[in-house]
Amino acid sequence: MEILGYITLTIFVGAMVLMLFRKLNFPVQTVLVVVSLICLVLGAVFRFFSEGWVGVILLPNEMIGGIILHPITALLAGLFLAGALTASGGFDVLKVLINKLQKTPIGLAGTLVILIQLPVIASLPCGRIIAAALLPLLFAFGFEGGMGLLTRSQLIVLIGAFARNAFGSCGPSPIGGVGQIGEGFLGAFFPTASEGMLRAPQAFSLMLGTALTALFLKLITMKLYPEGVSLRDLPEGSVIEKKKAEAKGSFKGYLSLVIFVAALLISIFQPFGKMPVQTILVAGGILMLFMCRVSIRDLMSGIILLPVTAMASGFMAAGALASTGGFEALGNILKGFSSVPFLGVAGMLAIFVQIQTILPLACSRILTAALVPVLYFFGPAKFDLITWPQLAIVMAAYMINATTSCGPSPLGGGGMMAEGTMRADTGYIKGAFTFSSMAIMAPLAAIYMKFLTLSSFSASGVQLGRDVWLIIEFTLVIFVANAIIIKLSSKVLSEDVDKNWLSQLPAFVIPGAMGGAILAFCLYEMAFLRIIQGAIGGIIASLLIALMVPKRLTPAETGE
Amino acid sequence: MDCGTTEWLTFLFLMAFYLSVEIYQVLRRKEGEIISFAGPDIPLGDLLGTRANVRMKDGEVVDAEMSGCTLCLGRFEVGDRVYVCKNRDKYVVSLPLFMKGRRKRSDFCKSSCRREQASIQGL
Lengths: 560, 123
Fold this sequence. Notes:
The structure holds two protein chains of two kinds.
Chain A: H1 2-20, H2 28-51, H3 53-64, H4 69-87, H5 90-101, H6 107-122, H7 127-140, H8 152-168, H9 179-186, H10 199-224, H11 251-269, H12 277-291, H13 296-302, H14 306-323, H15 326-338, H16 344-353, H17 355-358, H18 364-378, H19 388-403, H20 424-457, H21 464-492, H22 497-524, H23 528-546
Chain B: H1 3-28, E1 30-37, H2 45-48, E2 49-56, E3 61-67, H3 68-74, E4 81-86, E5 91-94, H4 108-121
Parallel strand pairs in B: 3-5
Antiparallel strand pairs in B: 1-2, 1-4, 2-3, 4-5
């Protein structure tokens, strides 16, 4: 039966790689469902010969047992609420409020900062919902949108950073976020893990990672691809009549926004006693439908349910792998990596944490649902390579890296991971997004989990003040070091495309080494050898990531 | 009503909601073919969502919205067959769980790059 695990694992990984290189031209979730069924059939054949019909009959049960309902139903409930908010005009009201913020003492700069961080504040289960809703407002800030408040480069930074925050905000969402998958597994040891153990580390690292993304876009991306994004700037000498953004909110919109915020706060803080999150969200959504007179047709035709099917297909694949021994096979392979002397467990974990940035699929939920069980097996439940607190630290780093992987996926629009054929917009942001995920978010999430969350969640008393200072110090070091690397790299860039692409490799490798070392420090503290191993793992992961940043966004000119 | 009953009722409601949305979209969707993309005229706007011009089977060309998720998960390109659902005032491209294979008529990135180049040259 062991060989079956390796076969099904090969089928799964092979399908992922074929999709990434566009050899399988079907939607991701369709491929996963088919892969699950193939694994099921293969498993049935093997089991028939080894255990008879009894083994075959039990197989579908074991596969379905891999589907964890709580994250799926929480996500459905969150999408139901968000769909009702969209249909009732709640997002139009949000635009009005953002416009009004500009007139407060925080001004335009403060408003833009809040706007960029709004997806993680709103905590929707899918960041693209709010991103799509606020797109017209973002457009309005530029010259073509009418307000003329931002230049071309400022608009690129605004939208890029906003997209970064939006694509990662599904992780820490308390209403169906991807992090809840990990919290479910951690609940085997931490009784209160489901109350949001992974939320704070993800949110903290996402907010800071968003800032670094903005810096990368400004100082490096725009120099790497000067004509990579088309937008007209205000022609020199022109004067435009600045229009005020025409955002209007209705009473229904204000009401629905109030209901949304109330539902969110009640589900997080549970002031009326313990209630299932899904029930609160469903109640909020139904209240919105009735009080705001939302048409069922508007709700049903516009709602996005893709994340649900993506997650379900990921769980199906996970169930198929689990029931056929695929996870054990993967665990054995990774355990084999950990016995390599210069890698060890620390180095292997430093690579595993970055795996969804190295192999990004279209929706992070898919691979997260499929791979989190493997991470769980590293802990005391199976391979016993790490302890429960160490598992929580790795889970936090893994989760934020995973949830921020969907933005730069080369699958967007049918791109390919090769020079010049990647979809233009995805290619433009790939460097910035993968850098911030690898260099900032993963290590910061690990730091936060180590020095703050575990302090709050464990029974033993820890000096909270000391830990908060440690977090601040580490955060400053990580942020400043990466900012210096970005600044130095921007000075090296020239007009030579090949030289630029090579120049950015050290800019990835050094922070990658740092990130791997910090992860190892969080796991093993002052064990010097482990820190070196973590750094080596980080270098390997960052090289794999850096090699995928496209040299150019348009095909090289050929002599025709 | 105890917590267990509430959970079950919520679960059943959500399953019913999910199935009814899927059925609604299946019954109301119409098939068409993407003839071009007309993304938002802001940099990186396609990451957040785009618009596609879709020629329906009856020959009508509609302007349909496509979320970033749909574009990415569906890996749509010019020439692909898609399904659109009509909202109150707009069309939305949907992505069902199972889709037929699609003909690939052109390299989407080349189309996208041509769009970018044309936009720059239009200045």
